[in-house]
Amino acid sequence: MSKYTKGILVTVAGAACWGISGTCTQYLCSVQGVNSVWLTQIRLIFAGLILVCFGFLTERERFREFTHTPKDFCYCIAFGVCGLMFTQYAYTTSISKTNSDTATVLQYFSVVIVLVVSCIMARKRPVFREILGIFSSIIGIFLVTTHGNFSSLYISREGFVWGMLSALAAAIYIMMPQKLMKKWGSILPIGWGMFFGGIAFFFLMRVWRIPMFFDREIVLGLIFIILVGTVCAFVLFLMGTTMIGAARGNMIGCVEPLVATLTSAAVLHTVFMPVDILGFVFILATVFVLAKK
User: Fold this and answer.
1) Is the pLDDT of residue 77 over 80?
2) What's the pLDDT score for residue 65?
3) 217-266 pLDDT, tens digit each
4) What's the per-residue H, E or C state across 68-129?
């Protein structure tokens, strides 16, 4: 098996882990009644600790240098709070207000946000392919949220707002750490960012005031989301994109909402109308259109 083929398979596996994790999150929030704020905090702290420990074991010299570089380390903390914490909370809440597949698809509107900001910063107009991607994304979101009815939202207004906030958060998450990751790699900045984002989230949202109960299903779901949906998904996707390139990796990332849709339908018996599927196709087409450099 060639390195490129392995990269394709590893990237697909990472994106699929994210998709399945979305369905698991929907199950915990909607069926088990787990609070999305509490879930976000647990996910960030424990996933961050695992990645930091992994970085320490595999990159001890870089680990020491990174923690002794105050400017970069402080920026990493800011990234954890403004990027990772915001992303995880907005996405988890979006799932609790809609469902895993709709939340995932709405989050892909971040592709358009990143494109617009990049064009503004570069002081250039978008090319035809980019304009086509913007319209495709807008059409897809319109179909998913209104089912073609201009006078009302098919999903709740709250769900739509959190979906758009999730897209904005994802755009910040993508753009903010670029220089940091080029210098230090991805494991340490993401690991420390998740950890500090989780700590900040704990105090800002007063998580200790949220009543919580545990049973076997909740514990197993938490373990799955932390290990598979966060740690494994990130490591596998990162490993795969280094083999096949970021552009192809982003295209293959479209597996995530497809897996979320399939698992949600199979496990949670979520019902989709043909217009939902059409909306998903339009939004996923945006990523394929814009993935080429």
Assistant:
1) yes
2) 92
3) 888 989 999 999 888 887 787 777 777 765 566 666 667 777 777 787 77
4) CCHHHHHHHHHHHHHHHHHHHHHHHHHHHHCCHHHHHHHHCCHHHHHHHHHHHHHCCCCCHH
Q: Smallest Cα–Cα separation from 256: which of 264, 266, 267? A: 264
CA distances in angstroms from 1 to 5, 6, 87, 223, 248, listed in the order given: 6, 7, 36, 32, 18
Whether the CB-CB separation of 35 and 210 falls below 8 Å is answered with yes
- Average pLDDT value over all residues in the chain: 80
Q: CB–CB of 60/241 below 8 Å?
A: no
Contact status, residue 253 vs residue 287, Cβ threshold 8 Å: yes
- Per-residue HEC secondary structure of 8-45 comes to HHHHHHHHHHHHHHHHHHHHHHHHCCCCHHHHHHHHHH
CA-to-CA dists, residue 73 to 45, 64, 81, angstroms:
17, 11, 13
How many other CB atoms are there within 10 angstroms of residue 57's CB atom? 9
Strand, helix or coil at 253?
Answer: coil
Could you tell me if 225 and 38 are in contact, meaning their C-beta atoms sit under 8 angstroms apart? no
Q: Which residues contact 186 (CB under 8 A, 6 or more apart)?
A: 234, 238
Q: Whole-angstrom Cα distance, residue 50 to residue 233?
A: 13
Distance CA 108, CA 171 (A): 9
Q: What is the tens place of the pLDDT at every residue in 138-191?
A: 787 777 666 666 565 567 788 888 888 988 887 887 778 777 877 887 788 888
User: Whats the size of the chain, residue-wise?
Assistant: 293
What integer is the mean pLDDT of 17-38? 84
Residues 6+ apart with CB under 8 A from 150: none
71, amino acid identity: K
pTM for this prediction: 0.72
